[in-house]
Amino acid sequence: MTAPASLRAPRFWWRRPGPLSALLYPVAAIYGAIAGARLSRKGYRAKIPVLCIGNPTLGGAGKTPAAITIAKMLEAEGRKVFFLTRGYGGSEEGPLLADLRKHSATEIGDEAPLLANVAPTVVARDRAAGAKFAEANGAEILVLDDGFQNPSLEKDFSLLVIDGAKGLGNGLVFPAGPLRAPLGAQFARAQAVVIVGDGEAGGKAVKLAAEADLPVIRAILTADAESAQQFSGKRVLAFAGIGAPEKFFASLEAAAAEIVVRKPFGDHHRYSEQDAKALLHEAATKDLLLATTEKDLARIRGDEALSSFHANALALKVTLSFDDERAIKNLMGKALAR
Questions:
Q1: What is the DSSP annotation of 130-183?
Q2: Looking at domain 50-221+320-337, does it have CATH number 3.40.50.300?
Q3: Least packed by Cβ within 10 Å: which of 121, 200, 230, 315?
């Protein structure tokens, strides 16, 4: 039983519990009981360390950028890192090694193309099978982008990434709130929490993590300087089909872009020819630059029907950096020693 990742998060999830949350609470209680029990199941124990970057809530928080930063840290120490991802939204079941020369996001999902630019990336619906495949192909360390709530693969170290602006929302489980499973059950299986960006909601999450004796690391998402330069002073039509499109819009504005039109879509949105034609037409009519995220641009790459759309859109690249990189390395040390 899994909450749909493609769902556009309703506004009431991020407010104090109200009548709608109360109405959905009985369903949420059943869902939470099942999700909590599922977390306690035992899965495959890999022969190599497994590090998991997860998110306690539905919607974007910065999992993929965090996974990429951690992989780069480990690679800098000479370790052979592989990513493992479910390939959400892709048609391939795997396990297979993502190859950007022949695989598109339609086949391997949204995250895999970004991860594969950094390290070998295994796509597998069955994460245990994916781990075995990575082991057979020479992986020394496995970094999971998501999969925290999936029990099929044992984790040696898990980070829960939380958006500092949104925090944990109303603190209720789906569908009454944004939590993927009861918070206590999730915190009990994590080794640390990463708060991305500032915000009052993030401060509340820090307090809850401290009560659970979980270390908290601060992190920020910043635009790549070279990528940001192409948007500086430009009038843009910004579109994004991610969990938190407003974060992308804020990053664009921080890069000195003038956002004339904002087009938020649902998380993991699959762009149609009609979407492409409408966005291209509006951008051309208003003389605007088409701006989007790396994940969105990867999603439309390789689709012949969207080739013109892909050629005319530019992505703003972002990087996640930890305030205390040494603390992250120390926390991961025990898991890596295995």
A1: HHHHHHHTT-SEEEEES-TT-TTB--SEEEEEEETTTTTTTS-BTTTSSBSS-H
A2: yes
A3: 200
Measured distance CA(212)–CA(285) in Å, rounded: 54
**Residue 240 in 3-state DSSP?**
strand
Separation of alpha carbons 17 and 97, rounded Å: 43
Q: Phi and psi dihedrals of 131, rounded to 5?
A: -65, -45
Q: Is the separation of the CB atoms in 84 and 141 below 8 Å?
A: no
Cα 248 to Cα 62: distance, rounded to the nearest angstrom: 11
**CA–CA distance from 164 to each of 38, 90, 204, 247 (Å)?**
27, 29, 9, 11
2 CB-near residues (< 8 Å, 6+ apart): 149
Domain ranges (residues) in the chain: 50-221+320-337, 225-316
Tokens encoding 43? 């899965």
Q: Pull the structure tokens for residue 323.
A: 């305030």
- Distance of CA 329 to CAs 157, 187, 221, 334, Å? 11, 20, 19, 10
Torsion sign, CA atoms 245, 162, 187, 46:
positive
The answer to whether 106 and 121 are in contact (CB under 8 A) is: no
Q: Are 85 and 144 in contact (CB under 8 A)?
A: yes
Q: What is the pTM of this model?
A: 0.88
pLDDT by residue for the chain (338 residues), tens digit each? 454 544 567 888 988 888 888 899 899 999 999 999 998 899 999 999 999 999 999 877 889 999 999 999 999 999 999 999 998 888 898 899 999 888 888 889 888 999 999 999 999 999 999 999 999 999 999 999 988 999 999 999 999 999 998 999 999 999 999 999 999 999 999 999 999 988 888 889 999 999 999 999 999 988 888 889 999 999 999 999 887 888 889 889 999 999 999 999 988 888 999 999 999 999 999 999 999 999 899 888 877 888 899 999 999 999 999 999 999 999 988 778 76
Q: Please say whether the beta carbons of 3 and 13 come within 8 A.
A: no
